[in-house]
């Protein structure tokens, strides 16, 4: 297993390098630390790092979240056993020292293409955290990585993956911890407005993938040349 630490900025802070130097993980074959070049957003940090991934599978982790003990292994095993291209698992909220559990919003096992977005539309929110995902690296390249969005880029990726490939959902077993704290992006007053704009983005993107784009239905009018 290899880690790529992608820092969203021009210069890697010394504090980050010190943290990486203290990592002790027997299963690691190496840790690479890179900077994106200038502050942008999580989508840029992830997609820039995607170009450096050399393993056939990948998973991501935000700096303030955690894979729960054994969670990543359990999810990867379940996805592999189902011969799926990608998969996701149950997420819990971490509030201080408390773990707040959520129900499963999907039935366990294989999810048909399109099922993830259909469930997202029914619920009004994603059926699982977009970061709680493992996927074949080639599949993530196939859909273009994480789109350039200020928030919800992981939701956008998993919705797009769900249109192209069937997904395995690991139910009943929490795998990922989403940390709640006052300064996080989703806790800011303007987040609800940005979320509405992102829902419109997701709807248009999925409509285009399903053949409902205006570019697919517009009548072609030949251009005329002047005399």
TrEMBL record:
Cited InterPro entries: Glyco_trans_2-like, Nucleotide-diphossugar_trans
GO terms assigned for molecular function: transferase activity
Top-level taxon in the UniProt lineage: Bacteria
Keyword Transferase: yes
Keywords linked to the UniProt accession: Transferase
Range of residues in the leader sequence: none
Residues in Glycosyltransferase 2-like domain copies: 11-97
Protein name (Swiss-Prot/TrEMBL): Glycosyl transferase
